[in-house]
Amino acid sequence: MSGRPGFEWLPGALDALRDRDLLRVLTYCGGAPNPEVAIDGVPHLLLASNNYLGLANDPAVVAGARAALEEFGAGAGASRLVTGSLELHRRLEERIAALKRCEDALVFPTGFQANVGTIPALVGRGDVVFSDALNHASLIDGCRLSGAEVVRYAHADADALEAAIRASGDRPGRRLVVTDTVFSMDGDLAPLPAIVELADRHGCMVMVDEAHATGVLGASGAGALEHFGLEGRVGVVMGTLSKALGAQGGYVAGNLDLCDYLRTRDRGFVFTTALAPAAAGAAMAALDIVRDEPERRTRLHALVARLVAGARDLGYQVLPTDSAVVGVLIGEAADALAVGASLRADRVWAPAIRPPSVPVGTARMRLTVMATHEDRHIDWALDALASARPLAAGAAR
Ligand SMILES: *Cc1c(COP(=O)(O)O)cnc(C)c1O
Asked: Pick from 137, 167, 238, 334: CA 20 to 30 A from residue 119's CA?
């Protein structure tokens, strides 16, 4: 079928992506994100899911979703400010606030939306936002949408941040520091104690994104702020229900004033249908498991340590990690693709991450571990990495 008028550019744009190996195609899984999933009917080892605690299809979490579905229906029917606010949302927000040791919280349909809605509610034209160079795309888009001046500082570099804040001088306007706590591609941690200290000293607001930390880090699974003992020290604590919690949705936690303000001014909260009841019910059940089964976190970190040590023994350069995200540095994009294809031939499913997602020359395999993996799954991954090792030409330590 020929394109509609005005779309003459589209075939050429597709070809250009195809020619540069940048056109993405989707891979479909035949079931839930278990350690082994069927792809085209063939079981594969899944090392690419953010279902870190294995909660996405945990029976208690599925039961929580089902109970909410039965009681509140499939959809909330309206935005939160009209008739979409369910008692279930309030209970979930209280649970999140308690976990994060904040006064209050709001839930959103996705974490992406929480970020693109919340940053523009906090800053706008005439303000400045300081953003880590490796922040998640949703934070970057939130910064852009806000209309504030965006100053990117070198990744996880508190000195660079302080220099940028100083350089912004005593201009009028609000100042906001935004950072992932665990970085999604590298799995490393932001230097949060230093960031919080210097932001306080310079009178800057701080917003953190705990997407990959919630459920994974901290004694009670609250995230990186708990890990560092910084609860109550950050003004805006964002996260997602969609990763370790195995459900769907995002949240922002903070003090009462912040949440009152965002309920009115956050466009990602106001102009959208409320979080689906089943997702909220699933998240509630997942929060119970995060609280009651710390052994899942212990198990997850032990498996990560086993994978990291094994890959290093094979001569791979593994990026330092504090989380469930394990980056195996390959270097050139073509080599990463070759390693990816080799893993795939051994029925291991993990993505090769290439520029522009990561800097040129730092293409890597991004392996994510789940508490539900067994030791034999890690051995399977290491066997596959051993077979792929000759393809990772420049990856020697
Ligand atoms: C996944 C992710 C998000 C978006 O969360 P969703 O709930 O998946 O929309 C935001 N920030 C970071 C750092 C993420 O990794």
From this structure: 167
Nearest CA to ligand 1 atom 1: 211
Nearest to 333 by CA among 315, 357, 367, 317: 357
Centroid of ligand 1 to alpha carbon of 169 (angstroms):
32
Ligand 1 pocket member 212 (CB < 6 A): yes
Binding site membership of 211 for ligand 1 (Cβ less than 6 Å): yes
Q: Cβ distance 248 to 242 under 8 Å?
A: yes
- Residue 9 CA to ligand 1 center (angstroms) comes to 31
Q: How confident is the model at residue 1 (pLDDT cuts 50, 70, 90)?
A: low
Q: What is the pLDDT of residues 70-122, one digit of tens each?
A: 999 999 999 999 999 999 999 999 999 999 999 999 999 999 999 999 999 99
**How far is C-alpha 173 from the chain's CA centre?**
29
Token pair 């992506």 is at which residue? 17
Residue 51, ligand 1, Cβ within 6 A: no
Q: Looking at the whole model, is its pTM more than 0.70?
A: yes
Q: Is the CB of 209 under 6 A from ligand 1?
A: yes
Residue to probe by mutation, ligand 1, list 209, 237, 245, 366, most atoms within 8 Å of CB:
209
302 CA distance to ligand 1 middle (Å): 24
pLDDT digits (tens, 9 = 90+) for 251-301: 999 999 999 999 999 999 999 999 999 999 999 999 999 999 999 999 999
Cβ of 242 less than 6 Å from ligand 1: yes
